[in-house]
Structure formats: C-alpha cells, structure tokens
Amino acid sequence: EVQLWESGGGLVEPGGSLTLSCSASGFAFSTTHMSWVRQAPGKEVERVAAISYDGLRTWYPDSVKGRFTISRDNFKNMVYLRLDSLKTEDTAVYHCGKDWSGVGILGQGTQVTVSP
Questions:
Q1: 69: nearest Cα among 82, 57, 85, 88
Q2: How far is CA 1 from CA 11, 108, 110, in A?
Q3: What confidence tens digit (pLDDT) does each residue in 10-60 have?
Q4: In angstroms, how far is CA 103 from the centroid of its own chain?
C-alpha cells in the first residue's frame, strides 16, 4: 500500500522559513519522481515543486522559484520542501505527490499558515 506522510507545517510570519518532510513507503521510491502540491481555501491545486527520481532534475513554477527548494534522500525514502521568504499567499495545505506532475497519489497534507 502506498503511503505518503507529510510533516513540518506550522504558523510562520512573512519572511520566515519552514522545511516540510514527506515519508514514503509501499512503492519503489528510489525510481519514482516526486512532487509537492498545495491547495489554499477556494483555490485550485497548484504544483509547487518536482524532483526526478535521482534528484538531478527539479522544477518550480515562477510563483515560488528562488524561494522553495525540493530535495530527497533515497536511502531514507524521504522528500523535503524548504520554504524560504514565505508570503501570506503561500498559506495552504501542502501535499507530497507520488509522481512528477502532482496529479497522482497525494498524502494527507500539512498546513502552512503565513501570517503576521
């Protein structure tokens, strides 16, 4: 059974930082591209990062490029998302995804709230 478990969310002030973690199990993690998506209330799901199975290729939309960093540890079956220079508009539930596109299996998510 595929399981994705996110953690690390919380309340942070604008300009602050957080690191989200996703623990994966139930599939061949080291040969699977991974992604992070977010969903804010009333908004569509937005993919915010993707990483190739070997960690050599990453992708970010312009909205987070230069502020978010995705990484992975294939020995620990973990994928991470470092969030820097956070803005109020980054407030959302963040999910990790079991593919490059972010439209496949997602975890339950972790809430990130950016507020003064």
A1: 82
A2: 31, 15, 21
A3: 999 999 999 999 999 999 999 999 999 999 999 999 999 999 999 999 999
A4: 13
